[in-house]
Design brief:
Blueprint: H1 8-17, H2 22-40, E1 43-46, H3 48-63, E2 74-78, H4 105-113, E3 116-121, H5 155-162, E4 168-172, H6 179-185, E5 188-191, E6 212-216, H7 219-229, E7 259-263, H8 264-267, H9 274-289, E8 293-297, H10 305-320, H11 339-350, H12 353-366, H13 372-395, E9 398-402, H14 418-423, H15 429-434, E10 438-445, E11 451-458, H16 463-476
Parallel strand pairs: 2-3, 2-4, 7-8, 7-9
Antiparallel strand pairs: 1-3, 4-6, 5-6, 5-10, 9-11, 10-11
Helix pairs in contact: 2-3, 5-6, 7-16, 10-12, 10-13
The structure holds glutamine.
Length: 486
Amino acid sequence: MQLHELTIQEAHAKLTSGDISSLDLTRAALERIQAVESKVDAFITLDEASALQQAAACDSRIATGDTTPLTGIPLAIKDLMCTKGMRTTCGSRILENFIPPYDATVIKKLKAAGAVILGKLNMDEFAMGSSTEHSSVKVTRNPWDLDRIPGGSSGGSAAAVSADMCMGALGSDTGGSIRQPASHCSVVGMKPTYGRVSRFGLVAFASSLDQIGPLTRSVFDNAVMMNTLAGYDPADSTSVPEPVPDYTAYLTQGLKGTTVGIPAEYAALEGLDPDVSAAVENAKKVLQERGATCVEVFLPNTQHVVAVYYVIASCEASSNLARYDGVKYGFRDSDPAGLMEMYKHTRSRGFGTEVQRRIILGTYCLSAGYYDAYYGKASQVRTLIREDFERAFDACDVILAPVAPTPAFKIGENVEDPLKMYLSDIFTLSANLAGIPGMSVPCGFSKEGLPIGLQLLGRHFNEGSLLKVAYNFEQATDYHKQRPKL
Ligand code: GLN
């Protein structure tokens, strides 16, 4: 096995035993990026010199015996988390030259743990999208089929991990943006409970839904990254002072006594690909064989999830994105006739079509005459959706579901049809509306050989239960061992 193919767990063992150095690992990752980046297009910014410098510092640190499971491990970051001195574009023209003066809390934590940060990864502009086609920079390709989307909005993160360009990555998930690309690229993705991981320094899309989480090649690696990322942060007022367990401790627990809920409404949804439903059905059997009990659960408000999410997310986005006015940040129209024209030109040239669509939709829904009918009503139904999950979790520990209704679609296939793209988020949006944790683990391939992910949803702060079920599933299957041929 080549160095760039190692999991974090394997690389850590080799680093601490002295078999390899962080410089070896980092060079291997950089060489891999050189070899495949022109096909995959995952990176927006790559800082080789800084990566090698960080790796050398890690080697000195490892020599003193002061290591964490992430020391010396090459990682990459979705380009919407602030990295001090490193450009953070959010996949948008409006921030194309923004160099943050500070690190997001998650970046500080990774740096303190000794991770090597290679660079920043492509994404849909302001994390709005499900395909990475809405990036103002470029379209990332799915390493399993270069004519297809890698998913989104954290498409660069999933593609880079899947193509072995980095050992793990950070993504953000507002309505599925970690789980869906993880599913399309056959990697493990975790959206933690709202408030579990600090959002300080994350460029905001929809503040009541956004959450940062890890994408990795194994469930163990995911638990390791969660150990570093999770925890209270006084700089984020929505961060929760809940103690952080050792997530790896859940992995060795068996599934006896674990009840898995299967939502009755999901199987009946139109447009579910037969290969996806077969893979999820097979996963159910695998978990039963390992001792889990399956029960039917009900999420009666499923039909409203897409509408509620797109109203709430767009409302919050319209408010959050008001700050990009050409005065304080980034891009400014160069030759306006006056102040109003400067605002107008800056925003109409700086933002892409999808972002403008959401700002217009959100502004409309928040306007005086419509607030109650749209934002107010959506907020009420959001409560009902959360209550559906509370009731379902009275009957089960973990919910099993598809991540996306179909495997990765072709580049260009849905880009002209925003409604179709929105509808494909049906299985992932509700976890964000309810604030609960969700995970995607590789669970099969379609007839065409495209990856399929299994979604696990849990109670607030029960990431450990998701990791336990995911790890048991991974142990019983070998989907995660298959690699794309690039
Ligand atoms: N696809 C969803 C959207 O376009 C979710 C995006 C996300 O999770 N950032 O809003």
